[in-house]
Each structure stands twice: as structure tokens, then as C-alpha cells.
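FAQ: What does a ligand-bound record look like?

Like this one, built around flavin-adenine dinucleotide:
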Amino acid sequence: MEEWQEGEIIENKKWTENLASLKIKANINLHKAGQFTRLGLKHGNNLVTRSYSYASAPQDDLLEIIYVNIPNGIFSPRLHQLKRGDKISVMSQAIGYFTLDEIPDGKNLWMLATGTALGVFLSILKTALPWKRFEKIILIHGVRYAEELIYQDLISDLKNKYSNQFEYLSSVTRSSIENSFNFRIPEGLQSGAFQKRTQIEINTDSQFMICGNPEMIKETTEVLKSFGLNKNRRAKPGNITVERYWV
Ligand SMILES: Cc1cc2nc3c(=O)[nH]c(=O)nc-3n(C[C@H](O)[C@H](O)[C@H](O)COP(=O)(O)OP(=O)(O)OC[C@H]3O[C@@H](n4cnc5c(N)ncnc54)[C@H](O)[C@@H]3O)c2cc1C
Ligand SMILES: NC(=O)c1ccc[n+]([C@@H]2O[C@H](COP(=O)([O-])OP(=O)(O)OC[C@H]3O[C@@H](n4cnc5c(N)ncnc54)[C@H](OP(=O)(O)O)[C@@H]3O)[C@@H](O)[C@H]2O)c1
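The answer part, i.e. the structure of the complex:
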């Protein structure tokens, strides 16, 4: 198979002015939940590309990603203009190791996401494996504004289906709304607020997958280290596995 395939935009859904999700039809290889792809758009003779986590599950028909339009970014404003029927290059083979087969066994799985990183966890949660492997799964989504708490229908379905196993916590930092925390993720762990809500202590019974804003990842990792947890490496398994969206 060629490295790049031509995909067709099926939907470019605008959740807010700058937060959106794309559905793409493309003849690509099966991915593992947790992996990312690269999308490409022609700029003159060059193909400009960027990485995007699959929000769709391997069993889904269309490739789905969540993206934020960075107004002075190079690629995302072009994604934002795409309409149904437009074409986009998609890498045939998914990449990445932010997948459950890299995560050691444990009792609890914490999934910590800022902004668009929600997608990678939705992809994993739409598969059967996490529910078979972990007694409790806690998804925490940190966003700036309430309207960025997207995919609530899917999250409600998961809550109904796995009512004793699944906890969803949200944190909105730039406004205050009912039923959400309003501080950043590291603070929620440091203060014990998340542990109090879930009734789960932080110790080596828990695996943490953390994705999104690199500063959040750095600060959260420091907090988790203060609870005695370590980075998960192939050579030395631990409890903290991360994926950064930029440097
Ligand atoms: C492994 C991996 C997976 C990724 N998955 C996604 C994804 O699923 N959805 C997505 O929107 N982006 C994702 N990204 C980031 C994406 O590749 C682009 O960087 C992003 O779309 C912006 O592209 P740009 O050319 O417009 O701006 P760039 O020049 O690439 O970035 C400009 C600045 O925008 C900010 N920024 C970049 N990405 C984000 C983001 N996701 N949320 C908030 N601020 C951001 C950073 O401050 C960055 O320095 C991923 C990156 C990596 C490495
Ligand atoms: N989201 C939008 O609709 C929107 C609109 C216009 C432009 N943009 C552009 O998109 C980018 C931001 O996108 P985003 O809001 O999805 O992502 P983001 O900046 O990563 O914010 C998502 C969440 O992460 C938190 N956060 C930021 N730094 C952190 C840290 N060091 N530790 C812990 N948590 C941290 C934020 O808290 P704080 O609120 O406290 O920072 C927020 O709750 C910017 O480049 C911006 O210019 C976004």
C-alpha cells in the first residue's frame, strides 16, 4: 500500500468557534486504539502534514479526529475550512505507542486529557479491552470553557453501559459551572479533590495515561511522582504513560 492515501471529508463538525471534529473516509490500514495518524494538505508542491490522534475506534467505518483551530497555526486553519467532499491526504499506517498493550496491569486506569486529547481516550474506551482489564476507569477532561466539554452523548452512553466501572470528571478552568471542577488537572490530584470524588487513593494499583498539553503532562507527572509513582518504560515498567501534542 502507498504511504499516503487520498481521503474524503464526510463531516467537519464545529462544536465551538474553534473546536471541531473531522470524519474522513479513507482506505487505510487498521489502527490500534490510542494511535495517531498524519494528515496532509498540499501547499504549492509540498505536502504539509500534522499528527492527529484517532478519536474513532478500530471498528468504526470512518476515521475521526478532534482538532482545535489555532488561528496563527499553519495547518489547523486549513483543516477548519474543509467541507464535505474535499480531499485530504491520510497516512496509510497509524503510528504510536500510547496503546493499552504498552500499559502494565493494574486495578484502576486513569485517563487524563486536556482539550483535544479527549479523542485518544474515546477511541480506547470504545473498544472492549479496557473494560476487561481494569476494575475502575476514570476519565478526566480539562478544558478552558464549558462548551469544550464535547462528546457528552458518547460519555453518557459509556456511563450507562459501565455504571459501576466508569467515572467521568470534568474540569473547566476559565468559567465556573455546575458538576465540574474548576482547577487544572495537576491541582486536582495534588489537593486530593479527584481522589475524594472517586474514592480512589493514588498508589501503584493505578495506571495513569496522560495526553495533551505538555506543561500539564510535566506538572501532573511531578505530582504523581510525589505519590511514589514512576514513568512507564518498556525496560522498566511504571504507572505513568504520556503522549505530548506539542513541545
Ligand atoms: C502525537 C500527536 C498527536 C496529536 N493529536 C492531535 C489531535 O488529536 N488534535 C489536535 O488538534 N492536535 C493534535 N496534535 C497537534 C497537531 O499535530 C498540530 O500541531 C495542531 O493541529 C496545530 O497545527 P498548526 O500547524 O495549526 O500549528 P502548529 O504550528 O503545529 O502549533 C502551534 C501551537 O499551537 C498549540 N497547539 C498545537 N496543538 C494543539 C492542541 N491540540 N491543543 C491546543 N493547543 C495546541 C501549541 O502551543 C503549538 O505550539 C498532535 C500532535 C502530536 C505530536
Ligand atoms: N479552545 C478554544 O476554543 C480556542 C479558541 C481560540 C484559540 N485557541 C487556541 O488553541 C490553543 C489552546 O487550546 P485548548 O484550550 O484546547 O488547550 P490548552 O491551552 O491546553 O487548555 C486546555 C486545558 O489545559 C489547561 N492547562 C493549560 N496549561 C496547563 C498546565 N501547565 N497544567 C495543567 N493544565 C494546564 C488549561 O487551563 P487554563 O485555562 O488555566 O490555561 C485548560 O483547562 C491556544 O493556542 C489558543 O490560541 C483555542
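Follow-up question: can I read anything off the structure? Yes, for example: The chain has a mean pLDDT of 97.
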